[in-house]
Write a structure and sequence with these properties.
transmembrane helix, 56% helix, transmembrane, globular, 5 helices, mainly alpha, membrane, 149 residues
């Protein structure tokens, strides 16, 4: 039986509330311009706290709602420890990739990464892909040419 809403998924509920509340707070406080990251980050890495536009907030909220299944599968303790252990990687890797890979390949024209906890959400999406079986599988161009001789 599939549970509806955030039943048995309290961390997912808090993550979704945090994503929406932090983005609304950033909009009200008019600090969206501080929430992007450059190669030389300023002061602290608070760019991962909130999204800067409503499309990203909607995408993140829907993704967290769908990924609540992982928390139910693993349990809240393991789910929370996964979030805490992936946080250093998702905090350090994007600026390093930007400065060491993307910026040299773009001839120093690319100096921007969008704000928000997108890296953590995609880490959860990988776990969802590996843990949940596929409902449908598609094949494109499945017909093979048969040669008769």
């Amino acid at each position: 039986m599939i549970s509806s809403g955030f039943t048995n998924a309290p961390i997912s509920k808090y993550v979704m509330v945090f994503i929406i509340a932090s983005s609304i707070t950033a909009s009200i406080a008019d600090v969206k311009y501080l929430l992007y990251i450059q190669v030389v980050p300023h002061l602290w890495q608070y760019w991962q706290l909130a999204y800067t536009n409503s499309g990203e907030v909607l995408f993140a909220a829907l993704l967290v709602y769908q990924l609540r299944v992982i928390e139910r599968l693993w349990g809240s303790r393991k789910f929370g420890s996964f979030l805490i252990t992936t946080l250093p990687y998702t905090t350090l890797l994007p600026p390093l990739l930007l400065s060491l890979l993307l910026r040299p390949l773009s001839l120093n024209t690319l100096n921007y990464l969008p704000a928000g906890p997108t890296a953590i959400l995609f880490a959860l999406l990988v776990q969802f892909y590996s843990a949940i079986p596929h409902a449908y599988k598609y094949r494109i161009a499945t017909s093979t040419s048969t040669t008769t001789t």
